[in-house]
Specification:
Blueprint lengths: L1 E10 L3 H18 L2 E7 L4 H7 L5 H9 L2 E6 L14 H11 L4 E7 L12 H4 L3 E7 L11 E4 L5 E4 L6 H16 L4 E6 L5 H14 L6 E6 H10 L6 E4 L1 H14 L7 E5 L6 E5 L16 H13 L4 H16 L17 H11 L3
Parallel strand pairs: 1-2, 1-3, 3-12, 5-10, 8-9, 8-10
Antiparallel strand pairs: 4-5, 4-11, 6-7, 11-12
Bound molecules: 3-isopropylmalic acid and magnesium ion.
Length: 361
């Protein structure tokens, strides 16, 4: 039996609720597919600040570094918003990404036919949408130096963040984009703001150069503002979108709305080796609904499917989870975020339980 160590970091807000359901899925899959998943749970984000005064303790970082994969819920909440940036819950997420070298974030957005009316967009616009955002995750504005807020001699404050990319950073994320496009419909769109930002002018040049190694993939380019518009106007034109950190953060939230709810979208953060990876829903900690038991666990459960596929080569088990999710949706189960007016709503635990039943758990 193969054994896998998984660091489970539920975090804040709805994090613990959704991760609990995803952990149950892992247990059932472990039994069915004869894999020994060793789950080690630890505090991260605000939950860690409350106990250790820091969003990511050395022990938890060590745990993440020594695990085969990390499953993360969400971090942050109003309680910690007044804290200095350096110790905010979100720092834990950024530090994990950086320390684990997870420079590529895969965020698929796929329409479920039965949820087509859950989207605010017209059915004919979103029917058939199946795209993947490849977001650069350890560079750009999020990490660039200099950064911070300073007070000038005249009392004026000056805030700075720096968007910076080096050739190797662009090359490696471009390669991920081309590789995943190759396994899909072989279309890669690189999104930049090359008409204004020098950094992204370099981005475009490097992506074109890397593209020479992938003649079978059709490469195109779009400015980020146009892309934001095209995502709503005609999302079916997209297959794989590769873009820098901040653009990817924004565009992937936008893409999630094509599918009806951000509560449906999983993600995988990967690096240069298969040894390290982190899986998390793309949504946040949703403090407004935390503790009410109404969160949608599907994004986290689908993140487990991505974990099985990318980190553990368990394609059959991953497909089984995706099938189970489709089956419960087809049966009409809806958490609040995906329920149309008048449709009955199930709780987070009920949704998890229904998926477990589909999996034979
Ligand atoms: C995401 C989130 C994070 C980000 C926050 C919580 C730091 O929005 O994963 O998209 O900005 O990357
Ligand atoms: Mg985001």
């Amino acid at each position: 039996m193969s054994a896998f160590n998984i660091a489970v970091l539920p975090g804040d807000g709805i994090g613990p609720e959704i991760v609990a359901e995803a952990a149950k899925v892992l247990k059932v899959i472990g039994k069915r597919f004869k894999a020994d998943f060793k789950l080690k749970e630890a505090l991260v984000g605000g939950a860690s600040i409350d106990v250790y005064g820091r969003p990511l303790s050395d022990e938890v970082l060590k745990l993440a570094l020594s695990s085969d994969a990390v499953l993360l819920g969400a971090v942050g909440g109003p309680k910690w918003e007044g804290l200095d940036y350096s110790i905010r819950p979100e720092r834990a997420l950024l530090a994990l990404r950086k320390e684990l070298g997870l420079f590529a974030n895969l965020r698929p957005a796929k329409i479920y036919k039965v949820l087509i009316n859950a989207s605010t967009l017209k059915p004919e616009v979103i029917d058939g949408v199946d795209l993947l955002v490849v977001r650069e995750l350890t560079g750009g504005l999020y990490f660039g130096e200099p950064k911070g807020v300073e007070t000038l001699a005249n009392g004026t404050e000056r805030g700075v963040n720096t968007m910076v990319y080096t050739t190797p950073e662009i090359e490696r994320i471009a390669r991920v984009g081309f590789e995943v496009a190759r396994k899909r419909r072989k279309k890669l769109l690189s999104v930049d703001k090359a008409n204004v930002l020098e950094t992204t002018e370099l981005w475009r040049r490097v992506v074109i150069k890397v593209g020479k190694d992938y003649p079978d993939v059709e490469l195109s380019h779009m400015y980020v503002d146009n892309c934001a518009m095209q995502l709503i106007r005609n999302p079916k034109q997209f297959d794989v979108i590769v873009t820098e950190n901040t653009f990817g953060d924004i565009l992937s939230d936008e893409a999630s709305m094509l599918t009806g709810s951000i509560g449906m979208l999983p993600s995988a953060s990967i690096g240069a080796t298969k040894q390290r990876a982190m899986y998390e829903p793309i949504h946040g900690s949703a403090p407004d609904i935390a503790g009410k038991g109404i969160a949608n666990p599907i994004a986290t459960i689908l993140s487990v499917a991505m974990m099985l596929r990318y980190s553990f080569d368990m394609e059959a088990a991953a497909a089984e989870i995706e099938r189970a999710v489709e089956a419960v949706l087809a049966k009409g189960l809806r958490t609040a975020d995906i329920a149309a007016a008048g449709e009955q709503r199930v709780s987070c635990v009920q949704m998890g339980a229904a998926i477990l039943r589909e999996l034979g758990g």
